[in-house]
Amino acid sequence: xKHIDIYDVLNNPxxxxxxxxVCGWVRTFxxxxxxxxxxxxxxxxxxxxxxxxxxxxxxxxxxxxxxxxSVRVKGMVVKAFKGEGNELNASSVALLGKxxxxxxxxxxxxxxxxxxxxxxLRLRTNTFQxxxxxxxxxxxAIHRFFHxxxxxxxxxxxxxxxxxxxxxxxxxxxxxxxxxxxxxxEEYYKNDFFGVxxxxxxxxxxxxxxxxxxxxxxxxxGPSFRAENSNTARHxxxxxxxxxxxxxxxxxxxxxxxxxxxxxxxxxxxxxCAEETKFFDTFVEKGLIDKLTHVxxxxxxxxxxxxxxxxxxxxxxxxxxxxxxxxDLQSEHERFLTEExxxxxxxxxxxxxxIKSFYMKQNADGKTVAATDLLVPGIGEIIxxxxxxADYEKLLTAMKERKMDLDAYKQYLxxxxxxxxxxGGFGLGFERFVMYVTGxxxxxxxxxxxxxxxxxx
Length: 457
Ligand code: 4AD
Ligand code: MG
Hints:
The protein is of the alpha+beta class. The chain has two domains: 6-103, CATH 2.40.50.140; 122-445, BirA Bifunctional Protein, domain 2, CATH 3.30.930.10. It has helices at 6-11, 112-116, 126-148, 185-190, 205-215, 251-272, 274-283, 288-297, 305-313, 331-341, 392-401, 410-414, 430-438; strands at residues 19-31, 35-41, 49-54, 70-79, 86-97, 152-153, 159-160, 172-173, 198-200, 217-225, 238-247, 301-304, 346-352, 368-376, 380-387, 423-429. Helix 3 crosses helix 7 (274-283). Magnesium ion binds next to strand 15.
């Protein structure tokens, strides 16, 4: 069916005076004595197309006027009678699919909670179309950012035997029958598909390090899986993960690239999704555009973990989990720092080694590692990264302290044997970024089919 996008009909002045065909779903229908109006959306643009029906010349099947029905309209593109852009004077309206009155997406604003129960239909709403257009634009901008800087795009394994974060949050991958019975765990895995314990990757970082220590600058952008039992508005069992890894880089270089990336992405969304961000500013988060414009132009803060603890300790009375040096920061602490203290994005650096991963570079103080988390208002942690331990002996010690299976990490250790270099990188949670730029407060509302504990489609 040869038709053109509503986006083009609305925006292309050279179409004025031309016969065209558009397809879409009915959003509104208004009737008056001589003319009636159909508003159509096809997902390509925020504004909808107004179709004008001259009742003396054209009789339209009433099914074509029902909310949610899909139609094909032929007509002449004309300048809009009122307002900007173009509209369509219909010469024919054909029904593609009718839509009965039980269509759950009705005009009165439905709640996000309700829409979450109908993930297959919620994308017909303005809010979700805007979210997913922003998501797509941001994904393109991620590739552009790295491509422009000669970072090479790597695809790291999704099914893997290596547990990067070592936090026991891996989903297992197995072909063993449910009632497989073996005397030992070892025997069970030996008879499994890969002959060892395998799972879904929680991060592409370890393989990213392999690539970076040969190609210099690389990034991965793909799904990561976490079997963490956290039923929160910021966690998914499957999320998209942007992970650059850079050779010959130390923690300040990692921080610089992270800040540059975030600002680049925000500018891209503001420039390419003007209609969408205006919508979010009006209906979802008042002041969103000002916030984003300001963030894209000002410097992010940097704060040592030790200093952050000093600040937080003075406020311990207000927290559910009071902190002391050595505490892992909870969401309440992260948000307090970025929202109340710094009032902008803040990189917290140099965390105690006990609360961070084995691969992080050990600082000279013997107590902290060269890690950083970027915290942003409204979300908390959006990026986690570090300089990596490049010293073989130090890395080995950290792994032994954690009782890790050294054989399984032989190749990773080899990178420290053969031409080891300082290097580092970070992981940006893509959905958390989309939440940040749209103002959406629940990660389940920026994902097509969100999956979390006890919830899967
Ligand atoms: O802080 P994380 O666990 O760091 C890593 O995985 C490192 N290996 C990254 C690296 O250095 N290459 O995860 C990084 C980011 C978090 O800051 C968060 O934004 C996001 O990934 N994230 C999640 N997003 C949604 N749901 C989850 N369950 C997430 N877990 C982490
Ligand atoms: Mg983290």
